[in-house]
Amino acid sequence: MEEIEFILDTAKESMNGSIAHLEKEFLNIRAGKATPAMLGGVFVDYYGSQTPLSQVANINVPDARTITVQPWEKSMLQPIEKAIMIANLGFNPMNNGDNIIISVPPLTEERRRDLVKQAKSEAEDAKIGIRNARKDANNDIKKLEKEGVSEDACKSAEEDVQELTNSFIKKIDDLLAVKEAEIMKV
Fold first, then answer.
1. Burial class of 75 by CB neighbour count within 10 A (0 to 12, 13 to 18, 19+)
2. Cβ atoms of residues 104 and 31 within 8 Å
3. In this structure, are residues 79 and 103 in contact, taking their beta carbons and an 8 Å threshold?
4. 5 vs 119, 143, 156, CA distance in Å?
5. Order of strands across the sheet with 57-63?
6. Residue range 17-25: average pLDDT?
7. Which of 1, 74, 128, 134 has the highest CB neighbour number within 10 Å of its CB?
8. E-assigned strand segments in the chain
9. 125 sits in which H/E element
10. Over residues 66-80, mean pLDDT
11. Contact call for residues 150 and 57 (beta carbons, < 8 A)
């Protein structure tokens, strides 16, 4: 039965990966309050190589509507400003000669609805990942059955996989509900 345990562990690991990916994607969906994570996807041309913004500057949030970016080298001000514009985050960075100040605009009702749609899409992608993990696990269990593992053990393992799937789908629905509430809160 070690094989079945291995299959269940592999499925659980894969499902946890889907949840972790979803949580990371949710961080990129901004809910109106400024956070350093909003600039997580910004890469700067640093001496010829694309480098994450956080590796060339300090990113701070002095209040709920402002992000400040203080480069470690003054010469990086223009490239950072350009990288933020290219990232197309809907921000208008202002360069004051020492650092870059970004005012995070409040979200409109329409933009909030778009963000909720985006969050639902990400949640659906995560559910697809969970279902694929279930399918892979069930296929592996069927192979074991053909190799002579008892039918009862395989049936039980398939039920375990389904329980695992249901619990992870519920976790995704819970995460989505929290994110939706966060986005819609004015």
1. exposed
2. no
3. no
4. 33, 14, 12
5. 57-63, 66-71, 100-103, 94-95
6. 91
7. 134
8. 43-46, 49-52, 57-63, 66-71, 94-95, 100-103
9. helix 109-146
10. 89
11. no
Highest mean pLDDT among 37-51, 55-69, 119-133: 119-133
* Distance between CA atoms of residues 92 and 5, nearest Å: 52
Tokens of 88: 């197309």
> Is the CB of residue 105 less than 8 Å from the CB of residue 66?
no
Give, in order, the Cα–Cα distances in Å from 15 to each of 18, 134, 135: 5, 9, 12
- Enumerate residues 6+ apart whose C-beta is below 8 A from 57: 69, 70, 71, 72, 76, 80
4 CB burial (10 A radius; 0-12, 13-18, 19+): buried
Greater pLDDT, 49 or 135 = 135
Vertex 143: Cα angle to 157 and 167 (nearest 5): 30
Q: What is the pLDDT of residue 186?
A: 63
